[in-house]
Amino acid sequence: MHSKNTLLSILLLFSVYMLRAQSYEGLLTDNYNGVHGVLSNPANIADSRLKLDINLIGVSAFFGNNYLSATLGDAFNDIDKTFDDAKTTPKSNNFIAANLDILGPSAMLSLSEKHSVALYTRARIFANVDDIDGSTIDKEGGFDENENFSINEGDLSGELNLWTEIGATYARVLMDKDEHFLKGGITLKYLSGIHHAYLNGSEVTVDYNAATEEVATNGTLTHGYDVGGDDSLGDAFNFGQSTGLGSDIGFVYEWRPDHEDQKLVDLNGNKISNRGINKYKLKFGASITDIGSINNKGGEQQTYDLNKVQSIDNFEGDDLEDALKNNFDVIGGLQESSKTGLPTALHANVDWNIYSKFYLNLNSDISLRGENKLNTHHIQNQVSLTPRLETAWLSIYSPISLMREIGFRWGAGLRAGPFYVGSGSILTSIFGQTKSLDLYAGAKIPIYQNKLRDKDGDGLKNDMDKCPETPGPIENTGCPWPDTDGDGLLDKDDDCPNEVGPQENNGCPWPDTDGDGILDKDDKCPNTPGLKEFNGCPDTDGDGIIDQDDRCPNDPGSPELKGCPDFDGDTLADMDDDCPKIAGPVSNNGCPEVTQEVQKQLNDYAKTILFDTGKATIKPESVTVMVDIIQILNEYPNAKFTVEGHTDSVGSKESNQKLSEARANSVRDFLINEGISGNRLTAIGYGEEKPIASNGTKIGRKQNRRVEINLIK
């Protein structure tokens, strides 16, 4: 093989390609990753499980391609055979990939329940060659100058960038309302470019004629690099000359259906968030990282016209830069190097707390940069599923992913206290054919949030709970309320904590106020002794009607008369009967009515009352008549009468009037004296005004001298 094959270096600018595989795979899904969380989503550090996290050093390296696959597990037996047996897959768009991500001294600090900050230092190397024809790789180091060959690369590109970052992150809780929790964060980073080199070709072809030993090339090729060095990584570094600004932004939403159970309280009832535990059932995160670019100062960029036929001897001993400068024409003159475009990407993930400490994370990384853009990096899209067991001091995870052009990858990782180590492809690398290999490891100083303990589950944290192993209310400092009398009602709700009593009487025994043997709750007359058959009420007269419903509680009576008696049987209770011993109609208040016959009889008796001549004195022989009148009046005790006195016309009118009044009052007084109520009798004297016969005869005058007793209607 002729050494002039160095021309192929035009097509192989780099031996590695920087594919932005996710650094620290598995670790970044961990809720206890601390400052590492800002690398994938700056919102991660808000409401962090760590008070403080100090990263001492962390290194993540990646190699991958879509051309060569090997079983690295065979390397333990025969490393040479491993690569001899490697399978190749030539394509028109092969690539080789490598990544180095160094996280230097960094720190994350949780300022409060809502606010967190982080400061980190980081060094990154990105290098890539896209769209290399696999047949070119097959022939590298093996082209025979005695045979014709052709290479059709078409469009190709490659970038190599080394820079450092100093990032500052602020994250805070945006919403904490019941089961909904949202946090956001932003990272601003200062970028310092150290080295850059890039290549971008269009419609590049190479044809070699063995007979003439001439090479015909076509297309255009743009080449940029640090001045003073060539395209190798170690020959040219510009510290502090190339700078730029970048940023990351992200949000995280958590669904916390058990939020009430995850918050404890102090003795004042104020809720305290248990920041030492994960509180979500589902978590959704989204972020955009690596927004920005680096201004490459002190670098050169030239575009070369490759349309030329020349002897292969022209390339002997030349490196890439010399081969281009010495053999091709420059288009457009010398320019300053193009900006380095950061590999802007969208990251989204869902984290499911399956049970207790077991989680399942689904993550996707999607490039927001197009391929073959001048000196601009892009990530290779991938989707990963990571089951993990997570505790504060130990997490174990095993990411399973599909990466574009590389395919299936299976890895494992471990975080144990201050140390972390893992790989996103270690298992596929050992047990099967793999196109990638990555590894990360590091050390940190984690200081975790205190987990609030509530051993008895009563909502009061242990250090404030006077009965930490027995549930009790906050108002009783976490101790259960006693039930001194054992009646099933707590003392705080028991009005009689030392006496057994039913709940319906607030823990007090039912009293028997009247001492009748019937408890007040069953006694309709709790203040008066009574009988059981009458629900504790008395029946003094024994008529079967309790006193409170008996109008005549001391006299037996009938239910129809509400417990009152009816002596005369006129259906009117004695207490309402003006004549309780004499039957009479209700319309006359139970008294008999004075009939015309009775009225006549009264007057017949009254007319026979005799008086001493010219006087009002009743003669003794009229006492019998008066007794008969009294008997009649007693039969009608509620009837009222007028006692009327009348005279003849003998004598003066004035004397006759006085005499009639005197005789009427004499009869009234006699009747009253014998027991007739005075309010029933009215005495009236009419003198000679109402004769019933002629005063011209002796018989007539005798009839006119009379007393009448008439019913007042």
Automatic annotation (TrEMBL):
UniProt key word Signal: yes
GO BP terms in the entry: cell adhesion
Subcellular location: Cell outer membrane
Gene Ontology CC: cell outer membrane
Cross-referenced Pfam families: DUF5723, OmpA, TSP_3
Record-annotated OmpA-like domain positions: 598-713
A molecular-function term among this protein's GO annotations: calcium ion binding
Matching InterPro entries: Bact_OuterMem_StrucFunc, DUF5723, OMP_bac, OmpA-like, OmpA-like_sf, Thrombospondin_3-like_rpt, TSP_type-3_rpt
Signal is among the record's keywords: yes
Keywords noted in UniProt: Cell outer membrane, Membrane, Signal
Protein name as annotated: OmpA/MotB domain protein
